[in-house]
Amino acid sequence: DAKTTQPPSMDCAEGRAANLPCNHSTISGNEYVYWYRQIHSQGPQYIIHGLKNNETNEMASLIITEDRKSSTLILPHATLRDTAVYYCIVANTGNQFYFGTGTSLTVIP
Amino acid sequence: NAGVTQTPKFQVLKTGQSMTLQCAQDMNHEYMSWYRQDPGMGLRLIHYSVGAGITDQGEVPNGYNVSRSTTEDFPLRLLSAAPSQTSVYFCASSGGRPFGYTFGSGTRLTVV
């Protein structure tokens, strides 16, 4: 199962773009990258996922490097409500999710 | 749609007691999983199921049992509660790749 590495914490000014990196150097060719966030002790919330191409939805953009060994989640205009722990997950081919410790993002007014 | 429903939301057990955490989903998802989250840590996979009648162990299965008799329900049983099982438990379901998992709101369990 591919493991992910994320910085433990990051700060971002309100209104600026938040760029959250993730390393997944052991990812296999058919494994998807998913991003979730968890606010306080609520259940994790799906943000976005991708395989090879960059993806964008109403919440965020996902940039995956060409070799697929790393990715970046971009929150284009961070708000205080984006303060949360963000998890990068590589799902194995059996569709099991193994969480790491994530990145604690603090959006500063 | 209710999504993933977990009951109860809070529970206090005495050491040695048994109980069942309930999880139900109304999305006809084949994949379901149970996680525990200890303070300041990420979620750890306890057990998972890839369909009715099929379950398997995750990272931390000891002390827990599961069964999947229907697509909708995936209960988690604590056989003999221990203080080390004090945690927040999350259930999740997925329709399969590439779709992600939908999580319930969690059950906060304290074992005294």
Poorly predicted residue ranges of chain A: none
Q: Name the strands of the widest sheet of chain A in spatial order.
A: 1-9-8-3-4
> Biggest interface between protein chains, with counts per chain?
A-B, 23 and 29 residues
**Radius of gyration of chain A, in angstroms, nearest whole number:** 13 Å
User: Would you tell me the structural class of the helices and strands of chain A?
Assistant: mainly beta
How does this structure look, described?
- The complex is a heterodimer of chains A (109) and B (112).
- Chain A is built from no helices and nine strands.
- In chain A, a hairpin with a 5-residue loop joins strand 6 and strand 7.
- Helix content of chain A is 0%, strand content 44%.
- With 109 residues, chain A is an all-beta fold.
- A five-stranded mixed β-sheet of chain A has the order 1-9-8-3-4, with no helix packed on it.
- Chain B is mainly β.
- In chain B, 0% of the residues lie in helices and 51% in strands.
- Chain B has no helices and eleven strands.
- In chain B, strands 2, 4, 5, 6, 9, 10 and 11 form a seven-stranded mixed β-sheet that branches. Chain B has a four-stranded antiparallel β-sheet with strand order 1-3-8-7, with no helix packed on it.
- In chain B, a hairpin with a 6-residue loop joins strand 9 and strand 10.
- The model of chain B has no long low-confidence stretch (mean pLDDT 96).
- Chains A and B meet through strand 4 of A and strand 4, strand 5, strand 9 and strand 10 of B.
Topology of helices and strands:
The complex is a heterodimer of chains A (109) and B (112).
Chain A: E1 9-13, E2 18-23, E3 33-38, E4 45-50, E5 55-56, E6 61-64, E7 70-75, E8 84-90, E9 103-108
Parallel strand pairs in A: 1-9
Antiparallel strand pairs in A: 2-7, 3-4, 3-8, 5-6, 6-7, 8-9
Chain B: E1 4-7, E2 10-13, E3 19-25, E4 31-37, E5 43-51, E6 54-57, E7 64-66, E8 76-78, E9 87-94, E10 101-103, E11 107-111
Parallel strand pairs in B: 2-11
Antiparallel strand pairs in B: 1-3, 3-8, 4-5, 4-9, 5-6, 7-8, 9-10, 9-11
